Amino acid sequence: MKFDRTIKVLKSNLSREPYIAASAVAMLTITFLSLNLFVLSLYFSHKALNYLSDKAQISVFFSDVMAREDILKLKEKYEKDERVQSVRYVSKEDALKIFTEISKDQPALLESVTTNPLPASLEIKAKELSQLSPLADEFSKMENVDDVRFYKDVIDKFKKWVTIVRVSSLVYLSVLFLVSISTVLMTIGITIHGKGLEVEILKLVGATDKYVKGPLILQGVFYGITAAFISTVIIFIALPFIVPILNSLFRSAGTINLNATVLFSMLFIELIFGIALGYIGSALAIRKYLKY
Amino acid sequence: MIKFEDVSKSYENGTQVLEGVNLVILPKEFVFIVGPSGAGKTTLVKLLIREELPTTGSIFFEDTDVTKVKKNLLPSLRRKIGVVFQDFKLLDSKTVFENVAVSLEVVERPEGEIKQVVPNVLNLVSLLNKSECFPYQLSGGEKQRLAIARALAHEPKVLIADEPTGNIDPVASDEVVHLLEKINTLGTTVIMATHEVGIVNRMKRRVVLMHDGKIVKDEKVGRYEV
């Protein structure tokens, strides 16, 4: 069947069944909207986790008897360690500067500091959160190490977050995919169910399978594309209201702005998803309802 | 042109609807297949267009064994045969014009040709003035004429009419039969399954009488007596 005829039949189907077409698009739009919101939440939580992971570090405080050169040797050694992302040396002088800076509103406190009581330290960031704990153990066993600080509880919570978000993403996306397929199956199924006789007649007058299926498949794809487009437009309009809410939910990550690339990527992915969903849904519906 | 060779058909529940049917139909013939309800007339039609398969035997359309045609080649077989169904089988969502056009669209005729052919065919069946009507706006006789127009549009070699007068009044029945006769004189083989005695006896054409799934009489110029 020629493509222009397929388009003609599609137009005719849509104009003669506007309410069925509208409800199919509405159902799919709701599905896509929920997918959009989920992806946005995932994006924000991912950013938040990255931010929190980035902040997680071990602070190793050395006693004053440990020579600066020895600490720098240790720094060099750990910079070559595969588990370590970065090592920063904070000298006694740097520590005092930081202390002075953060205590500048408390002159009484600053006056009381006559000598520098602050220790030199190394700030170590690991590539994986899970490696912080073993690294902390290693340092605490070393000589001339006064204290090793890392916020174990917080890191454990991060790890739980990462696992929960990843697992729930997979589960949610799988469920959403099944729900979407069922939605398309139902809505397109309703559309084509009434065409059973028409399809039977077309086959009896010599129509090929392609001729019969073409417009129905295209109808499903059309629903998918339209719904993807509408839901993305709605999200674009709603973004100024949604972003502050998400930012407040993930405030620990600081303010996150969605740029045009992210939004157009979302539109692109949704269009692909819409086309695939429309195609698979209508192909399955044809098999289910028309006994091909 | 059409040949049934020892064709039998029975269903899984054991019902035998055709038994040892042998029949040859030549090009340009007008043949009545007659018999009471349940004689096997409709089954014969269904087997010829491969809507169903026989349990045993072979059916030839020209040189093709219909029973062995692959599924993907069925459309091309069906395009050579026009079928008029007792229940019309019209596309309710399409206009009179579109109902006829569809049989040309499926054989991928160009748009321009469709616009030329459809009015001619509608004129032949006296429905040109109803081109834009939908089937529900037509009378029973008009629906049947539309079904004939659709079956004719792509110029099939054979036109099969399965009880075409079963659902319409006597006046409309006469119109339909005259139309089929006219189509036959234009060179198309016509097979009409019916149980209407008056029509068969008035036409004086070949009559194949069926009873309980068997051919019990085949006369060149026959009559049908109940």
Structural category of chain A is: alpha+beta
Radius of gyration of chain B: 17 Å
User: How would you describe the shape of chain B?
Assistant: globular
Oligomer: heterodimer
Radius of gyration of chain A: 30 Å
Low-pLDDT windows of residues of chain A: none
Write the element-wise H/E pattern of chain A from the N-terminal end onward.
Answer: HHEHEHHEHEHHHH
Number of domains of chain A: 2
Helicity of chain B, as a percent range:
25-40%
Shape of chain A: elongated
The CATH class of the domain at 2-89 and 156-219 in chain B is: Alpha Beta
Number of H- or I-type helical stretches of chain B: 7
Task: Determine the N-to-C terminus distance of chain A.
Answer: 18 Å
Number of E-state strands of chain A: 4
Beta fraction of chain B: 25-35%
* CATH superfamily caption of the domain at 2-89 and 156-219 in chain B: P-loop containing nucleotide triphosphate hydrolases
Domain FtsX extracellular (chain A): 57-148
Organism (chain A): candidate division WWE3 bacterium RIFCSPLOWO2_01_FULL_41_18
Transmembrane segments (chain A): 20-44, 170-192, 220-243, 263-286
GO biological process, one term (chain A): cell division
